[in-house]
Design brief:
The chain is built from five helices and four strands. It is an alpha+beta fold.
Length: about 110
Amino acid sequence: MAKRPIITYNQRLTRPAKHLRKKSTLSEVILWNHIKSRKMLGIKFQRQRVIGQYIVDFYCKELKVAIEIDGDSHDERIDADQKREEALKRMGIKVYRILDIDVKKSIDGVLEG
């Protein structure tokens, strides 16, 4: 059985990640309620997970998939988000971006898509 490469993380980000879990946005709460406890296809997700130098909204270790919910605040962070996504891709992680409004208005469509 082949070993998976170890993904390192910045330990200084664990406290901010914990804070983010406690202060989730409405869209994060809605999506989390649909994917926690392996509710979606038996897949385990973690929320506000530290990966490298970044904190991702949701992460599936088995699939190496990160889910990011983009709200209005991301409009000013396009370059930073792109840099972050490229770094995650170099670690072998696929990033899916979902609009905040889509989660609020059409969670079923988000989950199917």
